[in-house]
Amino acid sequence: MSKISNKMKTLFCCSLVLLVSYFTYFHHYDKPSKAFYDEYYYITHAERYLHGIVFFDVNPPLGKMFIALGEKLFNPNKNINIKEPTESTLLYLDSNNAFSYAGVRFFPVLFGFFNGLLVFLIFYGLSKNHFLSLMFSSLYLFENSSIVHFRGALLDSTLIFFSFLTILYFIYLYEEKKEKTLINYFVLGCLTSLAGSTKMVGLILILLFVFLFFKELREHKHDRIINKINKFLKRSMSYLFGLCVVFFIVFYVNVILSSTILDNDIKGNDIGLMMKTKSLIGLKIPSEDYIRMVRNKEIYNPLKIFIPMRDYFNLIKASQLFLPKFGVDETKLGSRPITSLYIAYMIAVIFIATQRILFMNTYLLPLFFSFILFFLMFNYVFEKNIMKKDKILYISIFLLIAQIFYVYSYTSAVTYGKYINYLECRKTRLVGFWEDLCHR
């Protein structure tokens, strides 16, 4: 009976999380009916997929293919002639606001919606406490900045979805007492690759392989050195195979969806004049090899996949030179899973920040790492109070959640892009030193 009761509690909590997540993330996701932030670019990329036109972008293809898939499935703009996105790198929408976002936003918002469930399951996997996991899921369910980003045709909700899946599977393996199999490492590699195939920053999750393997070493510390080396080679190869298979499939699908190269793209593909390093002088994207590959109808040949992949990595290298530099201080190192993910990510970000400016969505992944850290610290510090079911502690948790919900509701008009007048805008300023501007 206890097991059935525990399953029922889990099912109830999951249902409640999904219900709240629906109203905060998914409900009326096609509103406002105006493009914002990088939607102009990613909707353009989706339209190019739908028209089979080759394009290159610094982000890997997976997230943009989901945006295109949503438009393909729902096809809400079939009566609108969207010609410009196939001929330029920026979306131009008609002035009548006839363009529907129901298709292009569907999968990013769907992933944002399910992320709430994954947050709860991660917290429950770490604590085995339904109440705490449900309450602290509010950190995600009412997080205004992620709601704004995850309700748009952007890549971040897809990145977070596959990152949460990877972390959840890692927690399962880490807590599992049975010996890990090669299939376990292969699946972990596949999940990591799905995150990295959406945005390259997702590859920070490769650290989870290291933590999992060293846990196995501790459990078999008396094994002979040769056995440990043999085990490491087998597990690392299985993990790398999972990484490579998914990355290969994603890029292969990306290539076969793009069968046409526009003349304008070929004429403007020489970015060598903009390069500041000799190694990139004369770089062409797409390269002559890729142009020849497309024109000779060789896009279905898997042996040719290295050509567009080479062009893509050349573009990543080149793109670092187009953004202004910005310096920051160094940070300190730390250890332990999850914690190490956060620290390693921030160190990587700090290094990148010395090469170029960073945008706000760069910090969304470590933001959610910090939620997990906060939850772990709370359970560690108040472990005895939690076991005793201290009433004061539980009241404090309710007050914390009430504060989170208050901040969410206080700025919800801005979050969902609703019209507010000047006086209402002034009221949304929680503190006086915020430099936000309200226009009459």
Can you characterise this structure?
This protein has 440 residues and is mainly α. It is 60% helix and 0% strand. Residues 270-281, 323-335 and 351-357 have low confidence and may be disordered.
Distance between the termini: 62 Å
Question: Given the structure, what is the number of helices?
Answer: 20
**Biggest sheet descriptor:** none
SSE string: HHHHHHHHHHHHHHHHHHHH
Mean pLDDT over the residues: 81
| Strand runs, count | 0
Content of β-strand? under 5%
Helix fraction by DSSP (H/I, runs of at least 4): 55-70%
- Briefly note the structural class of the backbone: mainly alpha
Overall geometric form: flat
Q: Which residues sit in consecutive blocks of at least 5 with pLDDT less than 50?
A: 270-281, 323-335, 351-357
Radius of gyration: 24 Å
Architecture blueprint of SSEs:
Layout: H1 2-26, H2 39-50, H3 62-74, H4 106-127, H5 130-136, H6 138-141, H7 144-150, H8 156-175, H9 182-196, H10 207-219, H11 225-256, H12 263-267, H13 288-295, H14 306-319, H15 339-353, H16 364-381, H17 383-387, H18 391-410, H19 412-415, H20 422-427
Helix pairs in contact: 1-4, 2-3, 4-5, 4-8, 4-16, 8-9, 8-10, 9-11, 15-16
Can you summarize this structure?
The chain is mainly α. 60% of the residues lie in helices and 0% in strands. The longest helix is centred in the middle third of the chain and has 32 residues, at 225-256.
Provide tags for this entry.
mainly alpha, flat, single chain, 440 residues, 60% helix, 20 helices, 0% strand
